[in-house]
Amino acid sequence: MARGVYFARGDNKEKGVVDFFVLDPKRQVMYSRRKKSEGVFSLTLTTPGQYTFIFSNLKVRNSDICMSFNGILYSKNKERKYSFIFKLKEMTIKNKQRI
């Protein structure tokens, strides 16, 4: 299971807008949320392998977006916490996690 939250802030402390996707090990989209400044997700991860978390602001031009992401992955009675703060500028950030 994976749970998490994300927040995006644009220039001048305005809300940023990002697309967020999660791909399963077969590279199929298992979760997507488009054009949102924040989100909460809870996913059941049933297939062993590498899951990819993607944040993108490719559709927003001339705008920096500061992202905050906090998540927890549960695997075999093990809990791993993740926390990232990063800046997007007309690009996509991918984070891959093996379950």
Concise summary:
The protein has strands at residues 2-9, 18-23, 29-36, 38-43, 50-56, 64-75, 78-89, 92-98. It is mainly beta.
Explained architecture:
This protein is mainly beta. It is built from no helices and eight strands. The protein has a four-stranded antiparallel sheet, with no helix packed on it. A four-stranded antiparallel sheet has the order 3-2-5-8, with no helix packed on it. The mean pLDDT is 79.
Question: Topology of this structure?
Answer:
Layout: E1 2-9, E2 18-23, E3 29-36, E4 38-43, E5 50-56, E6 64-75, E7 78-89, E8 92-98
Antiparallel strand pairs: 1-4, 1-6, 2-3, 2-5, 5-8, 6-7
Please tell me what the overall shape is. globular
Give the strand order of the largest sheet, numbering strands 1, 2, ... along the chain: 4-1-6-7
Main sheet attributes: strand count, strand direction, barrel closure: 4 strands, antiparallel
**Count of separate DSSP helical elements:** 0
What's the end-to-end separation, in Å? 9 Å
In sequence order, what are the helices and strands, one letter per element? Answer: EEEEEEEE
Supply the number of structural domains: 1
Structural class category: mainly beta
- The portion of residues forming beta strands comes to over 45%
Poorly predicted ranges (pLDDT <50, ≥5 residues)? Answer: none
Helical content, roughly?
A: under 10%
Question: What is the typical, i.e. mean, pLDDT?
Answer: 79
- Give a count of the beta strands, DSSP E runs of length 2 or more: 8
User: Rg to the nearest angstrom?
Assistant: 14 Å
